[in-house]
Batch of 2 targets.
Target 1
Amino acid sequence: MIYSVIVDISASEIDRIFDYKGENYQVGERVLVDFGNRKTEGYIVAQKDKTDCPPEKLKEIIRSLDDFVAISPELLNLGEFMRREYHLKWVDVLRLFIPAEMRGNRVKTLIKKQACLSNVSNLDEVLSSLKPNATRQRDLVSFLYKNGATFCVKLNEAYGSSALKSLVSKGIVTVNSMTVRRTPYSNLIPSDSEKKILLNEQQKAVDKVLADRSGKFLLHGVTGSGKTEVYLTVIERIVAEGKTCIMLVPEIALTPNMLKQLRNRFGDKVALLHSGLSIGERYDEWLRLKNEEAQIAIGARSAIFAPLSNVGAIIIDEEHDSSYISDFNPRYNTIDVANHRAEQNGALLLLGSATPSLGSYYAAIKGELTLIEMPERINKRPLPTVEIVDMTEETRSGNKGVFSELLKQRLAETLNKGNQAMLFLNRRGFSSFLMCPKCGYVAKCQDCDVSLTVHREDNMLKCHYCGKKYYMLSKCPSCGYDNFRQGKIGTQQVVDLLKTMFPSVKVLRMDADTTQTKESHGKILEAFQKGEAQILVGTQMIAKGHDFPKVTLVGVLDGDQSLHHSDYLATERTFELITQVAGRSGRDAETGTVVLQTYTPTHYCLQLASKQDYKSFYKREISLREAGGFPPFSEILRVLYLGENEKDCIDELTSQYAEFTNLKAEYSTEFLYMDKMRCPLKRAEKKFRFQVLIKLTKRSVNDILQNIYSICDNKKRNGVQVFVERNPQNLS
Ligand code: ADP
Ligand code: ZN
């Protein structure tokens, strides 16, 4: 038999299928093959009877790498779709489907030794065969009699290793090896959440979803409307019917909370998949899904590739979130992939959000998704009142600080009542950059064209793009001035200010810096949930999803930060962010307050976000998009050129641009815009960055895309990487 194999070689330009011969392999298996003059791992993607490869060159597959088929035919199909749609290399797609550490055999199943009594019928008989003074052995036997099989490690700790050894040699105790599954967050405390009786709106939503098992739905429910309970009920029904489910949340930070609720309801039917787990945990959770020991996969975007068969439902919470769009290789849109996977499985797709993406809501209006609305909070709890503070007024009246008078007052009131507050800042670190006030010098990373961030904990400068660290500067390297000023305020500084304002109050901070270690997200949130701190300061990580009943105040310190980005998504992103943070306030009995500090208080985006008025925002924004010809009314493509040699990048860009120009002439009515330029982020990780931006009508997108992809494939310079992004969320 002939097998088509994709060899797993990283950083290679090869995206070709190679034929090998062999017997009794299966499509989707990982195998070891000879490639060039070395042995390489590969994936079988097809089998056939004949090959064009001359017989003297046709090599034989060496062996299988696993004792199971790693990639199911269904996932292989999904991979085909992704290659076509996003112009990806096979190997990059296939790698999404297995835990990274399976490659190169870097992960082992955990085997532990376990002891039990060889014959459990009669304790007294066993004990009488032991010497009366052999207390440890006697105790051990009694323990096993009572507790059954126990890990040897535990027995050795309690009774010493010689007791166990002699019992084994007498044949009284038997030891055997067993595979142990490593479980992430095994110490999550189950919460009260008994099954809730669905309220009317929730029941209607569930009924509507379950009425069409292969339907596509958009659940638009305001923050606190009880969407989670809808998801859980749908999952329950689908699993009861013998099918499996995938549940996605946008960030690793949100997984512990959802995991807890899923485990409460479904126990070890649930497996967690995300990159924050340890190697062993990730592998074991993946295997549990693969072996059908678990039926429900939950995780961030990569969990869409969970190795489940017979998927009955895919649920994507906070579907508007930009993290569902991968903006590094392999680039893909999780919602589109989910859509395809749902279709392949005949599964239902349920997208949920308080602020659906404009594109999804538009699709719902057009009837491509079934719209389900839950416009009210549970038990008609009021939405929080939002007070907008004009920070220019504040500055004019002499308050140059970070906190407006109103926010200080509301904070004090909240703390006095024994309630909790969350303060939101759209940045991390102590301050965003270091600038010389005399000559304007800004400290930058040597490898990336971005300013360095001051980190006070270790008094270092860090690049947030590549992670490189630099010593703090005491003097300006450009003019010698020695009184550096730190740029804008960051989370750390807010924490310090709070400590001086409210010395007895405990403050927690959550941002990319405090969440680098495993499970740290969960720990910070757990501590805040338990009331170990009264204030939580954070970046967008605290903006969404969380449900803290004691929070009655949310402060947004820089409400217009994200409004000033220059791309067409800026207003949509800001609206989402403000609505989401505001939604954290007053979720329990007491009404919440939100203080929104901004320099542009009358902007329609902030005005409508403060009322959580999604529909008015949608109407206004969608008409602007239509007038300007932006997505969803057009398709934006970015072709990215990355390389360490600037001239090579420019040459490649120039020659491909000439071909794009020919294409544009051919499809002159479809090209709305095309230009080439340096990226706003000029250099990152030692690579120069250039781009071609193209805006197309929706009419012949697929034809034009295939043409663009083949132009990119015809790249001449090896040191330059070319990527195409469809409707990118991030144009840096
Ligand atoms: P959303 O995800 O829509 O923002 P949640 O699912 O977090 O909202 O629900 C908001 C709050 O309402 C939670 O505290 C949840 O426990 C509670 N809740 C949800 N459904 C019910 C119900 N049927 N009965 C009572 N409380 C509910
Ligand atoms: Zn850098």
Target 2
Amino acid sequence: MRPKDYESGVHPVWCAGCGNYGVLSGLYRALSELNIDPTNLVNVSGIGCSSRLPYFLKAYKMHTLHGRAGPVATGVQLARPDLDVLVTGGDGDGFSIGGGHMPHLARTNVNLTYVLMDNHIYGLTKGQSSPTSRRIMKAYTTPYGGIEEPMRPLLYMLTYGATYVAQAYSGNAKMCAELIKGGLEHKGFAYIHILSPCITFNKLDTAAYFKGIIKDIPEKHNVADLHKAMHLIYKFKDKEPVGLLYKSHRPTLDTIMADLVTQTGGSKNYDIRKIIDLARP
Ligand code: SF4
Ligand code: MG
């Protein structure tokens, strides 16, 4: 299938110049390269500008409650592990309202791909600060400028045990495509963080700002080393690493649950260590 074959026919309602267009274009390309059958694809989202993405994608989709895409997608994946499950959403939806769910997607290694478009603001509700907003940013909720330290999503996901962690900039649709493709191919919880400017409400973190802070992850970076992935984020200081940061493998939630059903034989004396890996990365 060609990238355009994944268009739903519904024209995106995002503002002209919104970073999310680059992400959508990268997603179409990734799906095309993997030749994913839209009838095997489920796109779940919460609420926000980026959470509207499922409307523009040919797939089965669920536009759910604010911050609740993760639990709904987990249910879909456990019920139908044969399908490709994709979550799309933003920084407010994922880390503020949905912040309580994110750690559990990562630590239980749900086999799904989460594409989070981070514009450092709430766009749909017209410009409130989000958990990733910079301190100095003036918004409706921070009229004197933000005073809180922004959260660090990449460190957060690594700490909670995501098995695929990557970051891209929406202006580079090719890189978005590559990293989303890698996430879809990955067996486990794949988190792709995409810096994506909101040209209408975030006048501080513009496309020029994002372009100025991104820095490629060196080719020699060992993606299998969790410590090195964390260290690289600190080493980059005020720069944002783009590329694949970390990738590892451990049993996914659906396979462990299937094994529990088939292998324990209903006996509570079953040695559960036979189906879970106790080694820490
Ligand atoms: Fe994009 Fe911002 Fe417009 Fe929403 S308000 S569509 S995030 S530019
Ligand atoms: Mg946002």
